[in-house]
Amino acid sequence: MSEPKTYYITTPIYYVNGKPHIGSALSTLCCDVLARYHGLLGRKTWFLTGTDEQATKVHEAAVAAGIPVEEFVDGLAAEFKQTWTSLDIHPDDFIRTTEPRHTLAVQEFFRRLQATGDVYKGLYEGWYCVSDETFFRDSDVGENPKCPNAECGKPLQRVQEENYFFRLSAYSDRLLAHIEANPGFLQPEFRRNEVISFIKQGLRDMSITRANTGWGIPVPDDPTRVIYVWFDALINYIAAAGWPNDPDQFAELWPADVHLMGKEIFVRFHATLWPAMLMALGLAVPTTVYSHGWWVDAEGKKEGKRTGGLPHPTEFAAEIARVSGCNQAIGVDALRYLLLREMVFPGDSEFDTDSFLRRYNSDLANDLGNLCNRSANMAARYCDSRVPQPVEADPIVTAMCADSVTAFHDAIREFRFNAALEAVWRLIGSMNRYIEEKAPWKLAKQGETRAVDDAIYHCLEATRIAGTLLLPVMPTAARCVLAQVGLGDEGAAPSFVTDLNWGGLEVGSVLPPPEPVFPRIDLAAVQTAPAQKEKKLVTDEPAESSIQVQEPERPEYIGIEDFLKVQLRVGNVTAAEKHPNADKLLKLTVELGDETRTVLAGIAEMYQPDELVGRQVVVVANLAPRKMRGIESQGMLLAADVEGQAILLRPETQVPSGARVR
Ligand code: MSP
Q1: Residue 588 beta carbon below 6 angstroms from any ligand 1 atom
Q2: From ligand 1's centre to the CA of 34, what distance in Å?
Q3: According to CATH, where is 3.40.50.620 located in the chain?
Q4: Is the dihedral of CA 222, 228, 231, 233 positive or negative?
Q5: Whose CA is nearest to atom 8 of ligand 1?
Q6: What is the CB neighbour count within 10 angstroms for residue 56?
Q7: Where are the alpha helices (DSSP H) in 245-312?
Q8: Cβ(156)–Cβ(127) below 8 Å
Q9: In ligand 1, which atom is closest to the CA atom of 305?
Q10: Ligand 1 centroid vs 417 CA: distance in angstroms?
């Protein structure tokens, strides 16, 4: 049997006229996730990204910065590489269009098309937009020579010059026939329809050179001209795959399985010009060309280099780490998750820092955090920190897992990354409800040990499946989740072929001490400063900090007399219930010697009411009573703050109710 073809995935190559931002990060992250996903399915993958350096606008940016252009592009290409590494994005190859392998391929492509007659010389008269690096005809432009692209609108250059043309008009029928015969070629479907109408409006031959003003790939044997940057840039996909000098590598990689990019460079360039260029040379066209939408502002306008409104991804991840208190790698994973969950593929989505942070808390700290922490804590408490023996597989839970796995695969294959994550979160949500319903702490009190073991096994096993599914998106955090269910790094490399079925956990295996992965962000303490938001998040001026957090006050010493003012006493919890009007509060009845108090505590996310009844707590007994959501609290419980989670304090051994603490 012959080896399956290497799965070849590409991002657009990025103009090096500015730093990366979370728009460029989106295409690159999608490709990294696809590479990891197919790798987990056992396929050999090849993931290419790079930088587009021969554009007029890149030259203009270097001139404006007063830096020699070679030095300018070297600096920004390094910045892009470093940014991807910082986001745990690991391409197999990074191509720069100033590299000899690329220049050589572009010139050879040009020569071969000249030889077949598909490239010919003619007079070009029309308009050119440097910002969009696009030619426009008189009929595209109104009275006022401004770029017809609504996102741009910049003044156009009038061009009248001898140029080389590509015979694009000859390929309309073949393009339409290919699109029709291959429904998976252009995705999503509604954009395929845009391409069909664009081609049906009539394709004209296209100018593919410009006058040589000192930057660009020279036309072979005609140094007065350079090759138009789009004609040059698209060839990166085959140049990096070994064309024309490494036929073995080329045969292994080409055609690309997926070209992925934003919508503005889909119709004209990736879905029309590029396949026509390949057809002209008799090369196979890519299997799938997919375009996603943009990060837009509240008015639906594209955010990016032009508006300066998108954060630098590395800085954004560092800010998430800083405001949540998690480590850098987890901050990166949180950003990876949030980018793919907040973008509603394949459309546009508004970029809003606040909603990213809110989602961090709700999805990562709460939903995923709760499932993980509660499963691990219950296993530690009731199962001696081992994977317990289930009674039998609960068909409802196994079906939930299987549905989540199927929905995840389906969504990734359609490039709906947000939907893939939603599928995992449906499982997480169901399992959090399962814990509430089964209430293993109640079963434990009733001495139902087999039922406790059974419920906890189901929680751990579902957590394992959810954690495995998250590997392509959050590689570090998913490994932490798997470590919580006893699958540390020392085991076999994870696989989507074998590890997504029910029953992967080994009964009796030892679990490590529970350790929360995503600490909560104290949103009240985090203020996004609207006036600074735009300025501080811009990509070209490295921001000190994009999110402002109130600095904690400096500790001041207190005298013993101050400490003695606080009366601390041990109490017995005799009853507990949820506060009827506040999700986060529990209402406890606490006996302090012969006194009975009502104490409200913000611990509903960490403790079930029933598990608290009968345990001892430490109470601040002389705190002024305070009404919270309609109920008066007559004291406060002491708790350790572990990454935002409250862990209640209690005496080491049972002590008389009401005992003083000093
Ligand atoms: N150099 C060309 C691509 C040549 S590919 C042969 C180019 N470069 S770019 O730097 O301008 O854009 C690269 C990618 O970044 C595009 O896919 C574009 O859609 C994406 N984004 C730029 N701003 C964006 C948003 N605001 N939102 C999402 N992606 C956006 O075009």
Answers
A1: no
A2: 18
A3: 7-296
A4: positive
A5: 14
A6: 21
A7: 247-253, 274-281
A8: yes
A9: 23
A10: 18
Could you tell me where the beta strands, DSSP code E, fall in 321-377? 349-350
Enter the pTM of the model.
Answer: 0.81
Q: Where in the chain is the domain with CATH 1.10.730.10?
A: 313-484
Determine the residue of 26, 73, 230 to mutate for testing ligand 1's pocket, defined as the one with the most ligand atoms within 8 A of the Cβ atom. 26
Any atom of ligand 1 within 6 Å of the Cβ of 232: no
As annotated, the residues of the chain forming the CATH 2.40.50.140 domain(s) are 560-661
**Could you report the average pLDDT of every consecutive run of 10 residues in the chain (662 residues)?**
86 97 97 98 98 96 96 98 98 98 98 98 90 87 85 87 96 98 97 97 95 95 96 98 98 98 97 98 98 92 75 97 96 98 96 95 97 96 97 98 98 98 98 97 96 98 98 97 90 91 96 94 74 36 36 54 83 91 88 90 85 89 86 90 74 84 88
| CB 345 near ligand 1, within 6 Å | no
Residue nearest to ligand 1 atom 12, measured at CA:
14
CATH number for region 560-661: 2.40.50.140
CATH fold of the domain at 7-296: Rossmann fold (3.40.50)
Residue nearest atom 13 in ligand 1 by C-alpha distance: 14
- Spacing of C-alpha 316 from chain mean position: 12
Identity of the amino acid at 282? G
From the CA of 27, give the closest atom in ligand 1. Answer: 17
Q: Which of 27, 96, 278, 339 to mutate to test the pocket of ligand 1 (most atoms within 8 A of CB)?
A: 27
**Both tokens assigned to 646:** 């409250």
Ligand 1 and 264: CB distance under 6 A: yes
**Inter-residue contact 295 to 303 (CB < 8 Å):** yes
Q: What CA–CA distance (Å, rounded) separates 37 from 421?
A: 13
Per the omega criterion (within 30 degrees of 0), is the bond before 218 cis?
no
Distance set, CA 609 to CA 296, 445, 455, 620, 655 (Å): 44, 13, 18, 20, 22
User: What topology does CATH give the domain 313-484?
Assistant: Isoleucyl-tRNA Synthetase; Domain 1 (1.10.730)
For 192-211, the three-class secondary structure string (H helix, E strand, C coil) is HHHHHHHHHCCCCCEECEEE
Instruction: Decide: 369 in ligand 1 pocket, CB within 6 A.
Output: no
- Give residue 296 CA to ligand 1 midpoint distance, Å: 13
